[in-house]
Amino acid sequence: MTRLSVKALRLYDENGLLPPAHVDPSSGYRYYDFEQALAAEKVRILRSVDMPLDEIRLIVEADSPEVARKQLEAHRERLAERLVAQQRILAYLETLIEREGDIVVYDVEITEAAPKLIAATKVNTNLRRIGTDIGTGFGTLMQALGRNGVAGSGPLLIVYHSVIDEETDGDIELGVPIDQEVSVGTEVYSRELEGGLMATTMHTGPYEEIGLAYHTLTAWISEHGHEIAGPPRESYLNDPQMVQPEELLTQVEFPISSQER
Fold this sequence. Notes:
Blueprint: H1 6-14, E1 22-23, E2 30-31, H2 37-48, H3 53-60, H4 65-98, E3 109-113, E4 116-125, H5 130-147, E5 157-160, E6 170-177, E7 189-193, E8 196-204, H6 211-223, E9 233-236, E10 249-255
Antiparallel strand pairs: 1-2, 3-8, 4-6, 4-7, 5-6, 5-9, 8-10, 9-10
């Protein structure tokens, strides 16, 4: 009736999503009432659209259609974001095909960065929501500066204090150079961004394709006898609302601690 496998029914019983009406104590067989078929069908349909089990539980147990609707709308937005990301990946793959597999080559150089005063805010994020969190974080930062009459004096930047991957959350620091110290509460603060020797390269193109720039930099640092001396930084040299994705300029820097040998 439900088209759910025995394995699925066992899983949904274990996590409390669809417990059986009765379990035979001697055989362990699970028995379900006919009234549970509708809930089982809901579970099957929602799993078919890749909804997580904890969110399905909220819908199955919802007291009102409005609660279920909000959960479905939230999942729709997440799927839409995922679709956009997949479309970008597909476009990048098409670009590689057009180049006949030729990978972009990055030029690496050593620069001396001066310390600079920045206004900043920290965000804990992961790969699934990093784009949204960056947008929200920069919005919080710039609104706070605007309320206090402080203008940025350089390009927006991010310091990646943690390694963030598919399974790991981490902290990033969103900042902008300023000419005067500012204190606008617990979220936004000012500090000196450390200067020093930097291995740097320029990425041209969508932000989602920046990974190769990082691989190039870390390999170059190792090959030339340097050591990474701090978290990497990205500086955004033009506005994504003003240029096409393929024209975006992002400077990537790694602090390094030893001279070339």
